[in-house]
């Protein structure tokens, strides 16, 4: 091809070359069915460019190109461009076809269908968007509810054939007998401590007061305190009561489970199936102390727990028959994130309870502050003497939780048993039986110091209070599925379908 001819071809666009080729072809081929986009691309290409491409791909390296030859090259280039466009169009078409045919959301096929009127498509688009907004709103509310970890509290009264009887601690209000403090020359010291607010401890020998044995020696004797004990309508030995040290002094406990008798149980309710105690206060042997009344402090508690008699006990005065009706409540709490219950390892107790944790906590506080512990506190620290107890240990132990200087981490137990007490009082003894009781105790007991305590179950049942998760993960999924079905006519599987269609479309586009 001459240089003049090439310049002419350069000045003519590609479409003109195609027209010339078709005019000069002796056997005219069908016109190229070029899409507008491909035609625009070819228009932007000069004829010289097409010839350069042809020469590059020609095995014989021809230099003479006429118009029909150029048209053939253009057709090949069109086939290449149109194939790429067609391939991308096929992927989009496949995606829309899959979305309309396979997706379970109602209305999607109306949105992407070109066979319906534009007004109908706009209407369906509006409805679909509104439904999607409502679904997203409801789902967000459901997720917020799920993340708040709500709980239900179920209460159930369960009747059983047998119940474990609780441990019972009995403590005289007077912690030190006057006859004993007289012998130890400590009566005046105690009087000054509790009636005058202070004492000169240097005037008294208190060297032997720093031990549990000292307090046990000063306390009321077990045999003199508990005149008679009846269990299930039968007398029992007083030695079945164990000596324990509590925040209320030296006490005597029944049914602790730490003796050969084990833990006692009952198979029926009522007074005759419980514990009956006849107690003697011996108030003529009282000393000045922190308590102003006369009588006993009692507490019922679960075996293995720490009896906080001063805080959780109930009083029993002289000249009364106190009836203590028990109701057993079993509480089951949920741990985080739904609840706040938990546990921790204790240094001085093998079983975690809230009482044990509190006792251990203020024991550590008293030891670190006073350099010693109260005689009823656990641990290896030495026992405080009377001066240290009065000036330091008793004060911090009494006001420890009131001052809120605890620093304690005592979570609520996940499972605990509570014995609720219902008290009733009657005058005891009546004048009719006054002489009878004097003879029964061989005239050795002043009936003005006498009281009677009956402890029994009111009914053979357990009230169960249980925390339960009220909105779990599967309920969240069910509610999301219900919202999808209500507003979009779909389900959880619809989300999987959309994901599958999108993944397939992306795979086809990038793979090919």
What do these coordinates show?
The chain has 512 residues and is an alpha+beta fold. 42% of the residues lie in helices and 20% in strands. It is built from 17 helices and 14 strands. The strands form three sheets. Strands 1, 4, 5, 9, 12, 13 and 14 form a seven-stranded mixed β-sheet that branches. Strand 4 and strand 5 (234-235) form a beta hairpin. Helix 2 crosses helix 5 and helix 13 packs across helix 14 (386-399). The longest helix is centred in the first third of the chain and has 36 residues, at 67-102. It is elongated and about 110 Å long.
β-sheet strand percentage: 15-25%
Helix content: 40-55%
Poorly predicted spans: 8-15, 28-35, 81-89
Count the DSSP helices. 17
Head-to-tail CA distance between termini: 40 Å
Largest β-sheet summary: 7 strands, mixed
Shape designation: elongated
Label the structural class.
Answer: alpha+beta
Please give the number of β-strands: 14
Overall pLDDT: 79
Radius of gyration over C-alpha positions, nearest whole angstrom? 48 Å
Key structural traits:
512 residues, seven-stranded mixed β-sheet, 17 helices, elongated
Brief account:
The chain has helices at 3-11, 14-24, 36-43, 47-57, 67-102, 108-112, 118-147, 178-183, 187-195, 212-218, 222-225, 309-312, 354-370, 386-399, 434-440, 473-487, 492-511; strands spanning 151-159, 163-164, 167-172, 226-231, 234-235, 242-246, 249-254, 265-266, 275-280, 295-301, 314-317, 320-332, 415-427, 450-469. With 512 residues, it is an alpha+beta fold.
């Amino acid at each position: 091809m001459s240089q003049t001819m090439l310049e002419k071809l350069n000045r003519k666009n590609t479409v003109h070359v195609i027209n010339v080729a078709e005019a000069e072809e002796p056997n005219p081929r069908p016109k190229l069915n070029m899409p507008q986009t491909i035609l625009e691309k070819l228009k932007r290409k000069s004829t010289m460019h097409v010839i350069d491409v042809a020469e590059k791909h020609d095995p014989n390296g021809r230099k003479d190109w006429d118009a029909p030859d150029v048209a053939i090259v253009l057709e090949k280039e069109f086939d290449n461009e149109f194939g790429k466009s067609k391939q991308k169009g096929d992927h989009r078409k496949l995606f829309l076809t899959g979305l309309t045919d396979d997706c379970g959301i109602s209305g999607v096929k109306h949105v992407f269908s070109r066979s319906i009127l534009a007004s109908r498509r706009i209407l369906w688009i509006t409805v679909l968007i509104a439904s999607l907004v409502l679904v997203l709103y409801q789902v967000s509310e459901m997720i917020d509810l799920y993340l708040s970890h709500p709980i239900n509290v179920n209460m159930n009264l369960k009747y059983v054939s047998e119940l474990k009887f609780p441990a019972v601690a009995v403590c005289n209000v007077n912690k030190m007998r006057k006859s004993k403090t007289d012998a130890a020359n400590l009566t005046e010291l105690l009087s000054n401590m509790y009636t005058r607010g202070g004492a000169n401890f240097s005037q008294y020998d208190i060297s032997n007061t720093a031990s549990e044995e000292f307090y046990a020696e000063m306390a009321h004797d077990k045999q003199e305190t508990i005149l008679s004990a009846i269990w299930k309508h039968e007398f029992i030995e007083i030695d079945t009561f164990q000596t324990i040290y509590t925040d209320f002094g030296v006490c005597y406990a029944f049914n602790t489970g730490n003796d050969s008798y084990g833990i006692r149980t009952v198979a029926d309710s009522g007074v005759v199936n419980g514990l009956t105690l006849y107690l003697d206060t011996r108030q003529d042997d009282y000393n000045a102390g922190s308590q102003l009344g006369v009588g006993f402090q009692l507490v019922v508690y679960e075996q293995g727990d720490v009896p906080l008699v001063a805080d959780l006990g109930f009083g029993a005065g002289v000249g009364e028959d106190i009836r203590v009706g028990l109701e057993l409540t079993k509480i089951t709490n949920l741990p985080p994130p739904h609840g706040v219950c938990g546990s921790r390892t204790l240094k001085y107790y093998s079983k975690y309870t809230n009482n044990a944790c509190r006792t251990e906590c203020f024991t550590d506080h008293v030891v670190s502050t006073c350099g010693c512990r109260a005689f009823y506190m656990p641990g290896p620290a030495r026992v405080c003497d009377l001066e240290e107890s009065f000036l330091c240990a008793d004060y911090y132990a009494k006001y420890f939780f009131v001052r809120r200087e605890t620093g304690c981490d005592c979570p609520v137990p996940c499972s605990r048993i509570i014995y609720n007490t219902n008290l009733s009082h009657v005058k005891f003894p009546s004048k009719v039986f006054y002489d009878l009781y004097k003879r029964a105790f061989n005239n050795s007991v002043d009936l003005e110091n006498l009281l009677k305590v009956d402890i029994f179950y009111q009914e053979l049942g357990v009230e169960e209070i249980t925390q339960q998760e009220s909105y779990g993960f599967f309920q969240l999924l069910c509610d999301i599925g219900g919202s999808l079905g209500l507003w979009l006519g779909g389900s959880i599987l619809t989300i999987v379908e959309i994901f599958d269609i999108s993944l397939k479309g992306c795979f086809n586009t990038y793979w090919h």
